[in-house]
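Protein modeling request. Please complete all fields; requests missing the sequence field cannot be processed.
Requester role: graduate student
Desired output: 3D structure, token encoding
Chains: 1
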Amino acid sequence: MKSSGYVLLKVVEDTPKNIKTRIYKVMNGTTISINNKRYRSKGLIKDIDGVALSGSLYLIPVNSIATVIDILSRKGLADFIQIINLCKCLCE
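Delivered output (92 residues):
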């Protein structure tokens, strides 16, 4: 299913550093080492075909924004993000 547009997901500026790090790891993925083996987890950006513009700014397809908000809510991180709609027209 093709996306009809994108929205910006921005981490709020006064967010504590540890919360910013948690959001970054959820969105971009992380690598951990266990017994000298490295395990890489895919980030949410790869799953939804979004784009990371910076460490705290993400371009998310409109049809995937509900999934992103749901995952961040389950982790207690949804209060620290701001959604900016890029479409200013009245069309669908």
